[in-house]
């Protein structure tokens, strides 16, 4: 009899009997014990297990748990016992995807401090005969101690319930996008609004492939679908996440959010939830996967929620995160979902289940999971908590003891360090002055502190100052200053940054004008963040505040205060995210579009505690900051995998805008970095970016940079301006030489240069370079008269083409030239004769590559007037139009290119492959009649990659960075 059969029979007879000791049997077999270990895929990662049918649970070591990505643990930490009676820590459990050969199950996996991975009895039963057990020949008792794990009775029962949930409701836990079957979302338009169609934004070359891949993924899962026409369209912004993935986000702040009515479905009041929770002892928390995207938009709403990308238009099929009515719509769904189930409460995508005992809790869980499955929704298991004794919910700790304020609210004040100099003391005194308006007791402690601010007094922090400092901290943490969150009161969020930290305060403004603090928050800056420009530090403070207080802010109106005026333009709600903003600011501005706030400027002395928190950072806060960042992000994350890394990895993700230049180009990123340090002007600019700009910049050379300060950032010690690398003076001549390699005109040189680089007066320098080029002077043309009667505009590619011959040219060859009137895309065929037969051959080649044009415009040359070519055009459905005799300017589109072509030949004909290089540069250069786009962008729908593309940085090796960071 196979061992698996015996094991299953034993378990069926003893599954309810959790024993305190287990008999250990040694199995003697007629074959070598290869079956004692088995390699299994856990969450897609290969793990080697010891097979042990005596183990009452399956577990992995803490090291293995970290290696597979540290999935979120649930359950109360407890003790396990080995056969010898030794206790060791059980850290918790999680639901894992376990794949054995072709069998895939979602199973409970425990994590232990012991260094072993055990494939225990529960897993053996689930996978049945997939392990390949040998036949048992004999069984005898053994003296050798074999490790077998036990778990306390209550925890065993909980694990059994969670396991049954995972098995019974497999569809709920499966990856992929859920689809609500009970309702569709409708966006109500304001009366009389006109459609807003925003053009697609330019896409950085370094992330183009990643964006296209993400658009394909969203299309495959049904979140978007391609369309050809739309009245409404919003642009997208790409965010490169710390895990290397690119997230595509919709920027509806450009028009749609102003045109739709706010869904005013009420969010639940925390006070009402607290009253019903009172007396509960068991708590669970559920998290919906990609919460909003699980709701389909109705047909009318899909028409207005379109997005415009470089790949064309897409109609959004699911409720997008950035639409301002999304919170109200989603809360309505949640209220319907939990209706009639006792002890279940929902605040947006945060579901909590409360009960007085485990049995009731089990019934509630199965009831809510049954409803979730029937409604077509899906749960993100790694973010769920089951059978907890206490949970954090809406900024409070809920437990069997009742509802308590989160200790974190007071922690930041308790950990404030004493001021170290007059500047820090002035910041702290600003707090006393601000809150002293509401709490008079604050002023009586300021005497000893005021003494140190006098000019003639030497800095000496004594007992009197320490006593006053601690007294003020007690007041800040007392009921005089703190209040509970009340959604009916006005919410004010204030955030500030210093050179080494950010601080934030969320407060209520009462009808009498008084303000009381709900919660304090702060974090110190890591090394990368300390290199941010001052505007980026201030922006980081606002984003940190909003993420930290997300549960209280999302779906509600609030005031966001800053003492940095330029952020009002960048984070304002009316004009969309500014393309010129630095990459970090763009990413943060997009995040803030998900919130309903009014941003206000206040002077520094009105910042209250936020300024003090940013300066008097606790020395212990480094570790806490990382935890806060992870929690804040995970609360707001709508990614499929929900992955988050620490701030070091986030900073590395920004470096996709900085890369190494092509080997043939004589300038690379290392040279730029080195010469930037040697350039006195740029070195000073770097210091201003990092430490803040002076109020007045009198030097004219620096004022040019000052006017663009919002666009400047430092990445990997190189200066970037609106995503373009700033070239130091010592390297500019080499760069100009590369740009002018094929002797293009100044307009085309400037168009290409502005794609990749910047320095002051770059346009003037390019014009001087072209003007001083001897080859360009020799081939200069005389001005051409403008067309008297221009051709009508075309609406699509290949609607009308203009053709002509060029030659015999300097090289003795005849060239046949075709220009698309819509995109200005040129095709040139060399070694031609001026016969109709050769012209037809060219159009046959064009037809196989691009299709046949609708109209051909030519002069009255014999090959074009020939009967052979006329019959060919009729056969292909092409209409012919002829220009006026002896007036070549009437076919000006092709004539202009012929002229350009001949001049380029004069300059470049001594080079190999000159024709392909000239065509490549022309097709990739912005064209004045295409609103700054290049022919390739209009004709192919994408930019062509030039040698200069290597100015864009290489992708970051996130696995290598993460491994290096973990080893630290």
Automatic annotation (TrEMBL):
GO terms for biological process: DNA integration; proteolysis. GO terms for cellular component: DNA polymerase complex. Its EC number is 2.7.7.49. Residues 220-398 form the Reverse transcriptase domain. GO terms for molecular function: aspartic-type endopeptidase activity; endonuclease activity; nucleic acid binding; RNA-directed DNA polymerase activity. Residues 786-943 form the Integrase catalytic domain. Keywords: Endonuclease, Hydrolase, Nuclease, Nucleotidyltransferase, RNA-directed DNA polymerase, Transferase. Pfam families: Integrase_H2C2 (PF17921), RT_RNaseH (PF17917), rve (PF00665), RVT_1 (PF00078). It comes from the Eukaryota. PANTHER family: PROTEIN CBG26694, PROTEIN NYNRIN-LIKE. This is RNA-directed DNA polymerase.
């Amino acid at each position: 009899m196979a061992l698996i059969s015996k094991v299953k029979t034993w378990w069926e007879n003893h599954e309810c009997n959790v024993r305190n000791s287990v008999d250990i049997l040694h199995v003697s077999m007629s074959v070598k014990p290869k079956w004692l270990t088995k390699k299994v895929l856990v969450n897609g990662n290969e793990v080697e297990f010891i097979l042990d049918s005596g183990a009452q649970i399956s577990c992995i070591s803490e090291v293995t748990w970290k290696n597979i990505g540290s999935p979120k643990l649930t359950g109360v930490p407890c003790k396990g016992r080995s056969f010898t009676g030794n206790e060791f820590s059980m850290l918790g459990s999680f639901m894992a995807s376990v794949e054995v050969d072709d069998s895939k199950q979602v199973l409970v996996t425990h994590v232990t401090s012991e260094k072993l991975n055990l494939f225990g009895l529960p897993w053996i039963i689930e996978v049945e005969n997939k392990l390949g057990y040998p036949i048992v020949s004999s069984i005898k008792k053994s003296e050798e101690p074999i490790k077998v794990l036990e778990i306390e009775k209550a925890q065993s029962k909980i694990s059994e319930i969670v396991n049954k949930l995972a098995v019974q409701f497999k569809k709920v836990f499966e990856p992929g996008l859920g689809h609500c079957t009970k309702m569709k979302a409708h966006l109500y338009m304001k009366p009389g609004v006109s459609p807003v169609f925003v053009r697609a934004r330019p896409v950085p070359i370094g992330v183009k492939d990643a964006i296209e891949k993400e658009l394909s993924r969203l299309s495959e899962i049904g979140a978007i679908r391609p369309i050809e026409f739309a009245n409404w369209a919003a642009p997208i912004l790409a965010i490169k996440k710390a895990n290397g993935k690119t997230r595509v986000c919709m920027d509806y702040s450009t028009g749609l959010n102003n045109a739709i009515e706010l869904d005013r479905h009420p969010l639940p009041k925390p006070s009402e939830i607290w009253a019903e929770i009172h007396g509960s002892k068991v708590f669970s928390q559920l998290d919906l996967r990609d919460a909003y995207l699980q709701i389909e938009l109705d047909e009318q709403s899909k028409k207005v929620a379109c997005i415009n990308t470089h790949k064309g238009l897409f109609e959004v099929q699911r409720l997008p995160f950035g639409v301002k009515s999304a919170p109200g719509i989603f809360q309505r769904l949640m209220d319907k979902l939990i209706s009639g189930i006792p002890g279940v409460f929902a605040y947006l995508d945060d579901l909590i289940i409360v009960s007085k005992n485990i049995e009731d809790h089990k019934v509630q869980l199965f009831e809510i999971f049954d409803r979730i499955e029937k409604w077509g929704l899906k749960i993100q298991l790694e973010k769920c908590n089951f059978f907890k004794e206490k949970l954090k919910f809406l900024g409070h700790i809920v437990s069997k003891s009742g509802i308590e304020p989160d200790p974190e609210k007071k922690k930041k004040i308790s950990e404030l360090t004493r001021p170290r100099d007059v500047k820090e003391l002035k910041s702290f005194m600003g707090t006393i002055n601000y809150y002293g308006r509401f709490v008079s007791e604050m002023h009586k402690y300021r005497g000893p502190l005021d003494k140190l601010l006098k000019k003639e007094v030497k800095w000496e922090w004594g007992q009197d100052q320490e006593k006053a400092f601690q007294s003020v901290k007690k007041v800040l943490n007392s009921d005089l200053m703190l209040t509970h969150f009340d959604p009916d009161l006005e919410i004010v969020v204030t955030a500030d940054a210093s050179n080494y930290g950010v601080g934030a305060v969320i407060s209520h403004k009462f009808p009498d004008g008084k303000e009381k603090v709900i919660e304090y928050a702060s974090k110190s800056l890591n090394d990368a963040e300390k290199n941010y420009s001052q505007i980026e530090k201030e922006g980081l403070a606002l984003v940190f505040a909003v993420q930290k207080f997300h549960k209280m802010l999302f779906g509600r109106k609030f005031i966001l205060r800053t003492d940095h005026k330029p952020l009002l333009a960048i984070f304002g709600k009316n004009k969309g995210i500014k393309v010129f903003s630095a990459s970090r600011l763009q990413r943060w501005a997009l995040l803030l579009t998900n919130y309903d706030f009014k941003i206000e400027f206040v002077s520094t002395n009105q910042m209250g505690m936020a300024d003090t928190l940013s300066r008097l950072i606790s020395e212990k806060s480094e570790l806490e900051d990382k935890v806060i960042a992870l929690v804040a992000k995970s609360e707001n994350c709508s990614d499929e995998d929900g992955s988050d890394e620490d701030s070091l990895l986030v900073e590395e993700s920004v470096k996709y805008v900085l890369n190494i230049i092509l080997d043939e180009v004589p300038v690379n990123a290392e040279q730029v970095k080195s010469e930037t340090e040697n350039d006195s002007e740029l070195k000073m600019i770097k210091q201003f970016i990092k430490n803040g700009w002076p109020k007045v910049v009198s030097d004219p050379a620096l004022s040019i940079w000052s006017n663009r300060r919002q666009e400047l950032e430092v990445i990997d010690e190189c200066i970037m301006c609106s995503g373009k690398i700033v070239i130091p003076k010592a390297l500019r001549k080499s760069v100009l030489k590369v740009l002018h390699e094929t002797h293009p005109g100044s307009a085309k040189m400037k168009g290409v240069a502005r794609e990749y680089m910047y320095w002051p007066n770059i346009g003037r320098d390019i014009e001087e370079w072209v003007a001083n080029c001897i080859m360009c002077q020799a081939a200069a043309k005389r001005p051409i008269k403008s067309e008297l009667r221009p051709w009508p505009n075309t609406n699509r590619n290949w609607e009308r083409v203009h053709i002509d011959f060029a030659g015999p040219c300097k090289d003795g060859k005849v060239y046949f030239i075709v220009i698309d009137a819509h995109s200005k895309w040129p095709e040139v065929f060399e070694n031609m004769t001026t016969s109709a037969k050769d012209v037809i051959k060219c159009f046959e080649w064009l037809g196989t590559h691009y299709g046949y044009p609708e109209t051909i415009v030519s002069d009255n040359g014999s090959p074009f007037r020939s009967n052979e070519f006329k019959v060919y055009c009729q056969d292909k459905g092409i209409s012919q139009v002829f220009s006026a005799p002896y007036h070549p300017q009437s076919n000006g589109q092709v004539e202009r290119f012929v002229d350009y072509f001949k001049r380029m030949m004069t300059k470049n004909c001594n080079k190999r492959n000159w024709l392909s290089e000239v065509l490549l540069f022309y097709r990739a250069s912005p064209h004045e009649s295409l609103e700054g786009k290049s022919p390739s962008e209009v004709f192919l729908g994408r930019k062509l990659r030039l040698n200069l593309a290597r100015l864009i940085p290489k992708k970051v090796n996130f696995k290598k960075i993460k491994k290096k960071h973990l080893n630290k």
